[in-house]
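Page 47, continued from p. 46.
Same chain as before, 240 aa.
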Amino acid sequence: MEPQVVTTMAYKGFVYILGHATLDDGHFYIGSSLQTEQERLWQHQSAARTDPHRPVLQYMADVGPDNVDLTILEEVEFDDVDELRIREQYWIDELQPDLNIISAYNKDRFLLTDEQRADPAEQKRALDRLYYLRNKEAICEYQKRYNEENREKVAAYHKTYRERDPEAHKQRKHESYLRNRESTLAKNKVYRDAHADEMKAYFKRHYEQNKEQLLQQQRKYYEENREVILAKGKERRRAA
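Result:
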């Protein structure tokens, strides 16, 4: 008797963004689904009409359920639903939607204090932190593996999003930097200290390869900002 071969079935789902169909009012929601795009949108619309108990449903009820549209951000193949939730949480972290109040993959609301549950933003941060601390290694490993295996697809999704609304992308990127400025600067310093010789060699090589172009850029900058540069020089000399 031949041994049975057990294969893992790969499921298909998607991560989506839901917002106003025609107005860029700054309100949107990130979700994931195994259904069709139209089925998931219909579910949201139906719930908004009958029981708008969550911020996203209340928003849809306010603007009119039929005025909301759903767009796929990323199609995902997975063996475990947690993999889909990780990709959903990735986009939540990336785009910072205002209508999501809890993490994509965590239902630990009962572990929170009354104060945390009372504030939707604080509730989401606490839930995200709980899940991440509990599953840090698995999340980082999966995210790294997924990005390596789907490098072109992930880059294409990011490109599509940036082109769809470049100003919003720029603003969210700036806000993310401000939120994480201290930790980012600390990480950069640790990296620079650990790779000082490599970075010195890289910048030297870069300068030698692009010397003429860099000198032209410096001259152009000086010409365009001559008065400001001279004024700053005078201030430094006075202070010395």
